[in-house]
Amino acid sequence: MVGEEGAFVLGWDEVLTEEELSTTLKVLCMSEEEFREYKEQDSWEDNSEEEENSTLSNEVLSRLKTPCKKLLYDSILLTLESYASDLKAEHDLLNNKEAYEKLSRREQQALHVRYGQKRILHQLLELVQ
């Protein structure tokens, strides 16, 4: 369901791997009985028109059912815990000109990427609380 890399791609305004996330949330939030029925109906490939026409925008994410929001929230927290530093530490380093300039160009670029990733994750945390 998640794809080869085992991750979802999230952007500022929407989920970029929306089909994978939508299916994953749907399945993980099902009861055992609902899952059996879903599996028996070969619903893996059959998406309703509603699902095909909706994007997982931030607005839609904020309106998910409570179990799905909880699952996303916990997943986001786990992802944030995998980083060696928090958002504030990255922000402080970006704003400390002297410390920032001591970093190699590659380290600076990595810092910008990590900071952007963490900002998106924090934004999503707020949406699914």
Automatic annotation (TrEMBL):
Domain Rubisco LSMT substrate-binding: 4-121
A biological-process GO annotation: methylation
Location of the protein in the cell: Nucleus
Residue numbers spanned by region Disordered: 39-58
Gene Ontology annotations for the cellular component aspect, listed alphabetically: nucleus
Pfam families, A to Z: Rubis-subs-bind
Top-rank lineage group of the source organism: Eukaryota
Chief location category: nucleus
Gene3D superfamilies reported for this sequence: Rubisco LSMT, substrate-binding domain
Entry keyword Nucleus: yes
Biased composition (Acidic residues): 43-53
Listed GO MF terms: methyltransferase activity
Keywords of the record: Methyltransferase, Nucleus, S-adenosyl-L-methionine, Transferase
Name of the protein in its database record: N-lysine methyltransferase SETD6
Organism: Steatornis caripensis (Oilbird)
